[in-house]
Amino acid sequence: MIEVPLNSPQPLLSIQRIADIFGDTMLVGAGTVLDVTSVHRVKDHGGRLIVAPNTNTAVIEAAVDAGLMAIPGAATPSEVFTALSAGAHGIKVFPAEMITPSILHSWRAVVPKDVPLIPVGGVDGTNMADYWSAGASGFGLGSSLFKPDQSLEELGINATKLVWSLSNAMKA
Predict the structure, then answer these.
(1) What is the pLDDT of residues 30-66, one digit of tens each?
(2) How are strands ordered across the β-sheet holding 2-5?
(3) Which residues pair with 91 in a beta bridge?
(4) Which of 3, 97, 153, 171 is catalytic?
(5) Statement: the pTM of the whole predicted model exceeds 0.85
(6) Fewer CB within 10 Å, N side or C side of the chain?
């Protein structure tokens, strides 16, 4: 999965290009989706994924009605269950800096096991194993993977480190 934040330069063009190149082999869509209009614009540009920083039931319902995957942000169990009631397919555990692995572990006691919980915000190679052990289903990676103006070589090095960290976390 790849999300292009709507607050990045030319996000809809980026989504369209990625969708055109990868088709059904990659789930591509938008992040930082804050309103229903944006849901429809993302779909019109080939996006199939809607990620939000919050639990906006109108955005979730619009995404589901449009046949898109909805992964809203939640920072409390109440927000998680509100999102699930609206049709969310998974939960962006956000911001992960605030939701420690022990808190995520507590969520797993009440959130259905088949609901993906994806920590985002502050996840890097130093804490992936702890989140994975606590019940994370995957991770949203931003600045630990990519920073503006970095070289492709630096991006590759960061990606390799993160893959190594994740593979070790999955073995534990």
Answers:
(1) 999 999 999 999 999 999 999 999 999 999 999 999 9
(2) 2-5, 28-31, 49-51, 69-71
(3) 117
(4) 3
(5) yes
(6) C
The residue from 43, 61, 92, 97 that is catalytic is 92
Q: Which two tokens stand for residue 63?
A: 């995404």
**CATH architecture, domain defined by 2-143:** Alpha-Beta Barrel (3.20)
Query: Is 92 one of the annotated active-site residues of the chain?
Result: yes
If residue 56 lies in a helix (H) or strand (E), which one and from where to where? none
Q: Which residue has the tokens 């960290």?
A: 165
CA distances (Å), 38 to each of 1, 41, 46, 49, 117, in order?
19, 5, 13, 12, 23
Task: State the distance between the two ends of the chain, measured CA to CA, in whole angstroms.
Answer: 24
Instruction: Note if 3 is an active site residue.
Output: yes
Note whether 16 and 45 are within 8 A (CB): yes
pLDDT in tens, 131-148: 999 999 999 988 888 888
The pLDDT of residue 43 is 98
Question: For residue 74, what are its two tokens?
Answer: 């939640």
In sequence order, which residues have a C-beta less than 8 Å from that of residue 10 and are 6 or more positions away? none
Angle at 135 between CA 129 and CA 136, to 5 degrees: 70
Q: How far is CA 151 from CA 10, 147, 158, in A?
A: 20, 9, 11
